[in-house]
Write the structure tokens for this entry.
Amino acid sequence: MNFFQSIAQALTPQGIFWTLVIIALATFMHELAHYWGARLQGVEVKSFSVGMGPILARKVWRGTEWRVSLLPIGGYVEIDGMAPDTLPDGRMDTAKHGFARLPAWGKVAILLAGPVMNLLLAFLLLAGNFAANGVQKLLPNRAVLSQVIVGSRAEALGFKAGDVVTAIDGQKLPVQETVNGEQVGGWTRVQRTLTVAGPHTFTVQDAAGSRDIRFDWTPTVGGQKARLGIAYGADSSLTRVSLGGAFAESGGVIVQAVPQVLKAFGNLFTRFFTLNFSRDQGVSGPVGTGEIVSQAAKLGGWALVLIGATINLSLGFFNLLPIPGLDGGRILLVLVGAVRRRPLTFAQESFVTTAGFGLVMLLSLFVVIRDISRFF
């Protein structure tokens, strides 16, 4: 299978469509928050573009030129005073106006509005899902069998789909344990047990109660890996909640996601600076994102809602990173100017922002190359 066939197999037309829609909406709301953050403080917004690249259509409304651009991969707002204008004689207009005349808190409010909007969208999408579908809690100390293959060793031993493994070899599955330096759920002990030869006992529960299944196991047969014939994962429980409970659960999920997201970005930067192109389960590139959305599109609307929440969450946190060129980096420069009691000049800020933007572009290129290298 060649590269393009592999990509076509990973991405579906429906998945590509929904990926573009979700990213476009997340970006539009991000930029709209910047727009209102500026307008509410009396700062002019010269242009607002949905999409990037060549302009396909434009219309001036309320002093802003609203644009639709060719590439549906982002967008931007041009806020007066955030960058110097060019005078008719070619010199840069360094006079302070618009954004540049605002106090530090006003600038931070505009810059912070975009990421906060994405986090708010993630919060609302998660809350909507919880209110409609309930809260699903993982039970990592229970391994539920989702499938028992017909004619397999597992079927002969008496395993059934829906069985829940609660103990192995007389020991209850833990909620978490450390394996090779990483914390994993106790349900993963099923896989590790099947790499060890000898007699094993699985304690399983079903609607009728609890029973033990004892069997002798050999990890390899004729040089091939032996298979028990089960599909399994962490068990879960579903609880219906009120609207208030849905909001509380959504807020809890976002708070719990903070260290996970920071760890994922930290791992990405480590791999970037060491040129480690191996793929991990952290930050996905465009193909990886499209692949996930393609799978979600097959499951239905609420799966896409959860993906939309995840993308907004990632976009919000990513833009808060203190890298010049991102909102977080611009906020850092404003705070540095406030501490110095002297804002950075346009030239200084432009130099730092350009360097930061270059870093972001290199990081994006790294993610794309890492993303598609697995298809070669």
Summary: The mean pLDDT is 86. The first strand starts at residue 45 and ends at 61. The chain has two domains: 3-11+111-134+245-373, 135-239. The first helix runs from residue 3 to 10.
